[in-house]
Automatic annotation (TrEMBL):
Domain of life: Eukaryota
Organism: Lachnellula occidentalis
Gene label: GIP
Stated name of the protein: Copia protein
Length: 98
């Protein structure tokens, strides 16, 4: 997972951003705009449930992103950088509880 996060940070040239302790600023208000961008939906749903809310919130405007959204996406990148070793590990050896 850390390797995948590093790959994303490098791909979008944001590996030099300062880490963030939270994936989104609770004070921003997102509204539609006119530019496009890509999101981190796979990473959010596959192994980083801590960014699902933020990613889904941004995904609503994926076809109409502006600077506010790009900054919110950068915040996710900064959060991932600061929490790069966190995530869910799936194992076939896990004991299940009911």
């Amino acid at each position: 997972m850390a390797k995948y996060i590093n790959k994303i940070l490098n791909k979008f040239s944001v590996n030099n951003l300062n880490p963030s302790k939270t994936p989104i600023d609770s004070n921003i208000k997102l509204e539609p705009n006119k530019e496009k961008a890509r999101l981190l939906l796979y990473l959010a749903l596959a192994c980083r449930l801590d960014i699902v809310y933020t990613t889904i919130k941004l995904a609503r405007f994926a076809s109409n992103l502006g600077d506010l959204y790009l900054n919110a996406i950068k915040r996710i990148f900064r959060y991932l950088k600061g929490t790069i070793n966190l995530g869910i590990i799936y194992s076939s050896n896990a004991t299940s509880y009911i």
